[in-house]
Design a protein that fits this description.
- With 369 residues, this protein is mainly beta.
- The chain is 9% helix and 38% strand.
- Strands 4, 5, 6, 7, 8, 9, 10, 11, 12 and 16 form a ten-stranded mixed beta sheet that branches. Strands 1, 2, 18, 19, 20, 21 and 22 form a seven-stranded mixed beta sheet that branches. A four-stranded antiparallel beta sheet has the order 3-25-24-23, with no helix packed on it.
Length: 369
């Protein structure tokens, strides 16, 4: 019944999208459970970002993850889905410790997306989302950052720099401001969920939903002077053409950039509620391509009661990265629904511990036509 319910949701979403998007056949992906170096599964990281770095994958955890997983960059070997022995633990610089956001970042910040600086792979960009569980800003900080154009506690971009093989330093922070005409709305847990760099140091930011319930993509240039200020940085609406649906709740939860010669390039976005990829033309000339996805988890079963692979009704992709014509995806186990996926008893523990899965697929040239 559960699988049928999610199948119906996918069908409804698929057939209510308007003709502005080109639809492709469903691609079925086989995942791998992410494991620790000793072979045990990764405990409840609530994965909320993915990027490629020095031949490995990096992910991070949001504010609802197990405390042991928070405030660090997890290093994943793409060929095995195994974690590195060391993660990169976040510490704060004196500058950040003296900022308005120090208390929030020192507690359990809701970190939602991750990108590597294209000019320096010692530097990472991270973004915050929901701060409703944290202490409110001081009165002076609230006044200083009141005009966010969105939430009372503004979304914050963070600059991290590699210190050694186990530490990254949060060197700078910069809050985001939206033009009031963008009508973003005050939705603390529906903010920026994706980051990726394109051409000319342009950072693209994917917003889950605005006041009309629609996903949006914004941009900002990260130039040499960007981090010298702690005042608002204003993001720009890219006006890219996204699929239009007859209903709401079709958010973007991850994006990655795909370059193309003599072109601004494309974005591939993961729409977690729909089990879809959206291939988006940054030059607004090619209709958005929708790639429907289906997901399988390995059972490692040694009995006749279970198949070697089982379908996953609720996957919730929240990390995507393109590298060498390959797309890597990771899910954020949704605590409200992840246990609904339990079918084979050999996987019960994985779902109960909210273990994420790593997927990959080759990127096809016809997606961009």
């Amino acid at each position: 019944m559960v699988k049928f319910f999610y199948f119906c949701i996918v069908c409804i979403c698929f057939f209510t999208v308007t003709s502005c998007a080109v639809k492709k056949d469903v691609i079925t992906l086989k995942g791998r459970w992410i494991t620790e170096p000793n072979g045990s599964v990764m405990l409840d990281p609530q994965t909320s970002g993915l990027t490629f770095w020095r031949d490995k994958l990096l992910s991070l955890s949001d504010g609802s993850a197990d405390a042991s997983q928070q405030k660090q960059l997890h290093i994943i070997h793409p060929s095995t889905a195994k974690l590195n022995k060391n993660s990169l633990v976040m510490t704060m610089s004196d500058r950040v410790n003296n900022s308005c956001f120090a208390s929030y970042l020192a507690d359990a910040p809701d970190l939602e997306a991750l990108a590597v600086d294209p000019n320096n792979d010692n530097v990472f960009i991270v973004v915050t989302e929901d701060a409703t569980r944290s202490e409110p800003l001081s009165a002076s900080c609230q006044k200083r950052y009141a005009a966010s154009g969105s939430t009372d506690f503004p979304t914050v971009l963070m600059r991290l720099e590699l210190v050694d093989d186990s530490t990254v330093l949060i060197t700078h922070v910069r809050p985001i401001q939206y033009n009031e005409n963008y009508n973003i709305g005050n939705f603390p847990n529906d903010g920026i969920e994706g980051l990726t760099f394109g051409l000319n140091n342009t950072l693209y930011l994917a917003l889950e939903r605005d006041q009309k319930g629609k996903a949006r993509i914004f941009s900002v240039e990260i130039n040499e002077s960007f981090w010298q200020s702690e005042e608002f940085t204003q993001v720009k609406d890219t006006h890219v053409v996204l699929p239009k649906f007859d209903s709401i709740h079709h958010p973007i939860n991850a994006i990655t950039y795909v370059p193309k010669n003599n072109h601004k390039g494309f974005l591939i976005a993961a729409a977690r509620n729909d089990n879809q990829l959206w291939v988006i033309d940054l030059e607004h000339t090619v209709p958005t391509t929708i790639i429907p996805l289906a997901f399988l988890a390995p059972t490692h079963a040694n009995n006749l009661e279970c198949e070697q692979w089982e379908s996953i009704g609720n996957t919730s992709i929240e990390g995507a990265v393109y590298q060498n014509n390959q797309l890597w995806l990771v899910n954020d186990p949704w605590k409200k629904h992840y246990l609904d996926n339990i079918q084979c008893e050999t996987n019960r523990k994985n779902y109960e511990q909210f273990v994420p899965l790593l997927f990959s697929l080759p990127v096809k040239s016809h997606w961009f036509k």
